[in-house]
Write a structure and sequence with these properties.
The chain is mainly alpha-helical. The chain has one domain. It is built from 3 helices and 2 strands; from the N terminus they run H-H-H-E-E. A hairpin with a 4-residue loop joins strand 1 and strand 2.
């Protein structure tokens, strides 16, 4: 599984928890996991926008921006993970499956985006 897929799965797990806290359920469809993650993310962002300070100046188009920003961050981290893992395997003689990367997600209600670290 690619790092991007792994990171999307980490986001999905986080998203499922956060949707539950918003009183919502994660919706699985036959459209595929990537579309399900996007659609559920947009629902989550809408919930955050309407219940936080972000609602004061953003409309629903900002939810799409939040998704694009999150997706870009996950892709960038996946690229860094690919390169970093390769270096660690070579230098420390580790097996790739010994390396685990856990992401943290934090919501900025002033900017209405999720930061990944």
């Amino acid at each position: 599984m690619s790092y991007l897929d792994q990171f999307m799965q980490q986001w999905k797990a986080y998203l499922q928890q956060q949707l539950a806290q918003c009183g919502m359920s994660y919706v699985d469809t036959d459209a595929g996991d990537s579309l399900d993650i996007k659609m559920n993310s947009l629902a989550y962002f809408r919930c955050l926008r309407t219940t936080s300070r972000a609602d004061s100046g953003f409309d629903e188009s900002r939810d799409e921006v939040a998704w694009v920003m999150l997706e870009k961050q996950l892709k960038a981290f996946a690229e860094k993970a690919e390169k970093g893992t390769f270096d660690l395997v070579l230098k420390l003689h580790l097996e790739e499956n010994q390396i685990q990367i856990r992401l943290n997600f934090s919501y900025d209600d002033e900017q209405h985006i999720v930061y990944v670290s």
